[in-house]
Design brief:
The complex is a heterodimer of chains A (240) and B (247). Chain A is mostly helical and 240 residues long. Chain A has 10 helices and no strands. In chain B, helix 2 crosses helix 3, helix 2 runs parallel beside helix 4 and helix 6 crosses helix 7. The radius of gyration of chain B is 18 Å and the shape is globular. The relative contact order of chain B is 0.18. The chains are: A mainly alpha (240), B alpha/beta (247).
Chain lengths: 240, 247
């Protein structure tokens, strides 16, 4: 069924491109040929690797920070209410709105892009970790208390595993947002990567190059989500 | 004989509500005895168990568990309350680890008990792979493996279908006798109380207090069809009806 839908979309695209005959809408074949040329030249892989590198480094920081501060927010009670409030205020600001500040603070280049990735991925990881850890089923906690389990054993064997599905969902959402954030950051503040390449193709009116970049973004995002789901299923294998 | 647990003048009310749930409840639980607590819904039976378990703090009175070997109390809940991310083995290990039993002794503690309840082959299964009755038996094994001085049973088979419930009651009765346990059982099931208990206590009123104490002298092993058990159940039912009759 997926194959048929894909074929219909490609056929519709091809027909529209032929009908319009405009450089603004290249046909699928032209885009494929551009992709093959960029692959052969090595640019495409270099750009994918550049974007992935920024995502992974920014995401790693966001994961460490989001998990640690999320746990603090969940378990710190009223002492960390301020932390939760600060994140709640910053959360609605989209990563793209941070780009001007990132450029002012870190200048053009990798540090700015990594910062935008961090901003994009941090909020869902923090919020989900905080939410999942503070909503442990009371029955499990009562069981732990009834056998006299100490705080560390209760955290390790009860709270953390109970929260694992929520935390995993936050990490996966964060990864998706990290990927979209890096592209946004590269569009304006980087000298390499898929976002930068799309911008370069746009400046020379190479719509097929822009589309190759977009297709790569979609494909990489899909593969990252699949990988994250696979890891999630393995780690949280008891969850219904 | 010195009681394993002494409950004296126990009272409890939920903080801030001014609503007293229990008042002046006194019980004495002799060693190797099973005491069943019955009463109308909302009479505070489960609250009494949680007070004895130390999960709630009484507003009046005391709960005294005699010093001795093993943990003071262990509880079997209405639902099996097995942690779904752990295997049966690890669920049992978690409770043992919590009370400080060395890891090397864990299996020796639970393996014979698991075999006694007919679940010798489920150690590596997850709770989701067990039926409700099997999971509840694991819950009983978890509590017994702790070797508590007092076992607390909170309607342990309420969620099990009636046919299985009869078998599980007989099985539990055997386990309690074999392990020489002292137990406090809360139940809605008059017949369950008559099968398992040596003494039945009826709680009633608001705040609830002890209204009746009935001895069940039928010989063990018992089952629900024993005439002596039926007679005891009839007496308990009469006491309950007396307390829950419409005004």
């Amino acid at each position: 069924m997926v194959g048929i839908t894909l074929l219909v979309v490609l056929l519709g695209w091809e027909l529209t491109a032929r009908l319009l005959a405009s450089p603004a809408l290249p046909s699928p074949l032209e885009v494929a040929s551009m992709a093959a040329w960029l692959m052969g030249e090595g640019t495409l892989l270099t750009d994918v690797a550049g974007s992935l590198g920024r995502v992974l480094s920014g995401y790693a920081l966001a994961a460490v920070g989001g998990l640690a501060l999320g746990a603090l927010g969940a378990l710190g009670g009223r002492w960390t209410a301020g932390l939760r409030a600060v994140v709640e205020v910053l959360r609605p600001i989209p990563p793209i709105a941070w780009i001007p500040l990132a450029l002012l603070w870190f200048g053009l280049g990798d540090p700015s892009a990594r910062f935008i990735v961090f901003v994009g991925a941090f909020s869902p990881i923090f919020v989900q970790t905080c939410w999942a850890l503070s909503r442990c089923p009371p029955g499990y906690l009562e069981l732990a208390r009834s056998v006299g389990a100490g705080p560390w054993l209760t955290f390790r064997r009860v709270r953390l595993p109970a929260a694992a599905p929520g935390i995993a969902a936050g990490l996966r959402t964060g990864l998706g947002l990290a990927w979209t954030s890096v592209i946004a950051a590269e569009l304006v503040g980087a000298q390499s990567g898929l976002g930068y390449r799309i911008q370069m193709h746009r400046l020379v009116l190479e719509t097929d190059g822009v589309m190759v970049g977009m297709a790569c973004i979609g494909l990489c995002g899909l593969l990252m989500d699949l990988a994250a789901r696979t890891v999630e299923r393995r780690v949280v294998d008891w969850s219904p | 004989m010195r009681p394993v647990a002494r409950i004296d003048g126990l009272g409890f009310g939920w903080p801030g509500t001014g609503d007293a749930v229990l008042a002046d409840v006194s019980l004495s639980l002799p060693p190797r005895s099973v005491t069943a607590v019955l009463g109308p819904s909302g009479a505070g039976k489960s609250t009494l168990l949680r007070l004895v378990a130390g999960l709630l703090t009484p507003t009046a009175g005391i709960v005294e568990i005699a010093p001795g070997k093993g943990v003071p109390v262990a509880m079997v809940f209405q639902d099996p309350r097995l942690l779904p991310w752990l295997s049966v083995r690890d669920n049992l290990g978690f409770a043992l680890e919590a009370v400080g039993v060395p890891r090397s002794e864990h299996e020796a503690r639970w393996r014979p008990l698991l075999a006694q309840v007919g679940l010798g082959e489920v150690a590596d299964m997850r709770p989701a792979e067990l039926s409700g009755g099997m999971a509840q038996r694991v819950g009983v094994v978890r509590a017994l493996a702790l070797r508590p001085r007092l076992l607390l049973l909170d309607e342990p088979f309420a969620a099990v279908d009636p046919l299985r419930r009869d078998r599980l009651q007989v099985l539990l009765s055997r386990l309690l006798r074999a392990s020489q346990s002292t137990a406090l059982l809360v139940t809605h099931d008059v017949r369950e109380a008559a099968v398992l208990a040596d003494e039945v206590v009826v709680l009633a009123g608001r705040p609830a207090t002890v209204m009746h104490r009935l001895q069940v002298s039928a010989a063990h092993p018992r089952d629900a069809l024993d005439p002596a058990v039926t007679e005891a159940a009839r007496r308990v039912r009469a006491a309950l009806w007396a307390e829950s009759a419409p005004e």
